[in-house]
Design a protein that fits this description.
The protein has 148 residues and is α+β, with helices and mostly antiparallel strands. It folds into two domains: 75 residues; 50 residues, Multidrug-efflux Transporter Regulator, Chain: A, Domain 2, CATH 1.10.1660.10. Helix content is 34%, strand content 21%. A hairpin with a 5-residue loop joins β6 and β7.
Length: 148
């Protein structure tokens, strides 16, 4: 695909509601907009999407002006809504499981404990996934000596 043909609409956006804040994130450009969210204001979401698309358009134009190829769009769907859930950190998950943070990371990387990555690369777990792990796990991983 010719870089001049890439339009801002080709880049996926992730829309997420977290603790009464609306975040619209473009993973390809590592660009996000976060605002306090009012569920009754439908137009707010549309305006934020337009704001992000305009910024992506500016960044695409800037790359073309500098003869720098822009990132290719991710193969994800154009808009994706991530539901608001009770997400907890690696540290809190480790405390709940009574294991080290490294053990939690290893469990997540091996697929034993579902998680999602934040735009900054941090793992987040739902309380439900931790509870499910506890209920199906007969032998919890034990911390190594010196770990608490």
């Amino acid at each position: 695909m010719n870089n001049k043909q890439i339009r801002p609409e080709a880049y996926p956006l992730i829309i997420q509601v977290i603790h009464n804040h609306l975040m619209i994130y473009s993973p390809d450009f590592n660009y996000r907009v976060v605002e306090a969210w009012r569920p009754e204001d439908i137009g707010q979401t549309e305006m934020m999407v337009l704001k992000v698309r305009k910024e992506l358009s500016n960044r695409l134009q800037l790359s073309l002006n500098r003869s720098i190829p822009p990132p290719l769009p991710s193969p994800h769907s154009s808009l994706r809504l991530v539901e608001d859930q009770d997400w907890i950190s690696t540290r809190d998950t480790a405390r709940l499981l009574q294991v080290s943070e490294e053990t939690v990371r290893r469990l997540a990387d091996q697929g034993g404990l579902p998680c999602r990555l934040t735009p900054g690369g941090h793992r987040r777990f739902t309380r439900q996934s931790v509870s499910d792990y506890l209920s199906r796990s007969h032998d919890l991983p034990r911390p190594l000596e010196g770990e608490a």
